[in-house]
Amino acid sequence: MLESWYYDFLQRQQPVQGSDRIVILTTDQIDGSSSTIWDLDRFKAVTNALNSAGADLIVPIEPPPASSALPDVSQLSALVDLERRVRTANGDDTSNDMDSLTQQLANIRSQYERQAKITDAVSDAGNVILAMTATQATSHTPSDSNACAKLAIRLPGDPDLTNLHRHGLVLPSGNLCASARNIGFVDSKTDFDGVIRQNQLMAGHAGKIFGSLAYATALSIKDSPAAAIVEAAAIESQQAGKPHSFSSLTRYYSGTEESPAFVSISINALLAGEIPPEQIAGRIILIGSTENGSHATPLAKNTPAITVVATELSNLLLQDSLHRPDWLTVLEPVLLLLAGCMLL
Question: What does pTM read for this prediction?
Answer without folding.
Answer: 0.82
